[in-house]
Design brief:
Protein name: Outer membrane protein beta-barrel domain-containing protein
Mean pLDDT: 74
Number of strands: 10
Distance between the termini: 139 Å
Helix content: 25-40%
Low-confidence stretches: 25-32, 86-96
Radius of gyration: 58 Å
Signal peptide: 1-25
Number of helices: 6
Strand content: 25-35%
Order of helices and strands: HHHHHEEEEEEEEEHE
Largest sheet: 8 strands, antiparallel, barrel
Shape: rod-shaped
Keywords: Signal
Strand order of the largest sheet: 1-2-3-6-7-8-9-10
Structural class: alpha+beta
Organism: Parathalassolituus penaei
């Protein structure tokens, strides 16, 4: 009596022995490319199908396929893959009907899917290695592997320094000559307007010799001044003139801009002290003062601001009050 279990067991053993070279394609990738292997497997399946049909008194309808595209039945593979996983030790015991192993189409589809998987793997390998055949890629990688620095790029950012358009040194000159207008506020005689002239001679890098002259435009608004006998020694509303000389010391040198930072000009801040004589009408007295002056030095001319505290020691003016106060003015001039 024929034992179906033994027949199925023999079939399973024979089929897995036949499929083993294909399942292990990773160690011998030429097996799936050998048409003789597929031909022999299909022949074994055909013979087994014929013998099974004769034993059951049935007609054999299976013809081994000659076109490998007939091996791509995915629905059948869904039932057979659990069995293949169990054979390779990567899955649990398959929960499938063993009768499906008696279907030659099942095994034929299994072989087709194995060939497709092997073809996809080979394609991925080719894609991953074909990049290394590019000469430009290898030329970029080799310097990194050798630890050598790559070639310098032609696109390195090299900003051009901004040209501020100025000379950071004060022009070398013998001195300055200037003229201006000043305003004087006196504690005894009110405010007056002066016309001024001055000159500076550069004795050294920091020291200047000063020379100045000032003439009042309006009168002092002084009252008439008489002596003890009633003689008029100074008539009211007199004008005055001042001549002085002195020294200036440079406190600070710097740069300034008047056009938003495009061009710069140098400047000097000085401390000045002067001593001289003031002539008021037919009388005179000693004049002295000290203050500051600022010059902005352009290429061909200079402009400046002067401030000063002054005092006049005049015997006649002292009869009507001490003559002292503040003075400030604007000047402009040229170099010599």
């Amino acid at each position: 009596m024929e034992n179906p279990f033994l027949n199925r067991s023999s079939l399973v053993l024979g089929l897995f022995l036949a499929v083993a070279p294909l399942a292990n394609a990773a160690t011998d990738d030429s097996t799936l490319n050998n048409p003789e292997v597929l031909k022999n497997l299909l022949g074994v399946l055909g013979k087994k199908t014929s013998s099974d049909a004769a034993a059951k008194g049935q007609r054999n309808t299976y013809v081994p396929p000659t076109d490998t595209s007939a091996l791509d039945n995915t629905k059948v593979m869904q039932s057979l893959f659990p069995l293949l996983a169990a054979q390779q030790g990567v899955g649990n015991k398959p929960d499938s009907n063993p009768e499906v192993l008696n279907d030659p189409a099942v095994m034929a589809s299994l072989l087709g899917e194995i060939r497709k998987s092997e073809a996809v793997g080979a394609s991925e390998t080719d894609n991953s290695t074909s990049v290394l055949d590019d000469a430009d890629v290898m030329a970029s990688i080799l310097p990194l592997l050798s630890g050598e620095a790559g070639p310098d790029s032609d696109e390195i950012f090299e900003p051009t320094p901004r040209n501020l358009g100025f000379n950071d040194t004060i022009p070398t000159r013998n001195g300055l000559i200037g003229f201006g207008l000043a305003r004087q506020a006196s504690t005894a005689f009110g405010e007056h307007t002066l016309v001024t002239g001055n000159a500076r001679y550069h004795v050294s890098e920091n020291w200047d010799a000063l020379l100045g002259a000032e003439v009042s435009v309006d009168s002092l608004d002084n009252p008439e001044i008489t002596d003890g006998s009633g003689t008029v020694i100074m008539s009211s509303g007199r004008t005055f003139r001042v001549f002085n000389a002195g020294l200036g010391y440079t406190l600070l040198n710097g740069l300034t801009s008047f056009d938003g930072g495009e061009t710069y000009v140098p400047w000097k801040l000085n401390a000045d002290a002067v001593l001289g004589q003031q002539f008021t009408g037919g009388n005179n007295g000693m004049y002295y003062g000290f203050g500051t002056s600022l010059q902005i030095l352009k290429d061909d001319y200079w402009i400046g601001i002067d401030t000063r505290y002054f005092r006049v020691n005049d015997d006649v003016l002292n009869k009507v009050g001490t003559h002292r106060g503040l003075q400030w003015g604007l000047t402009a001039g040229f170099y010599y």
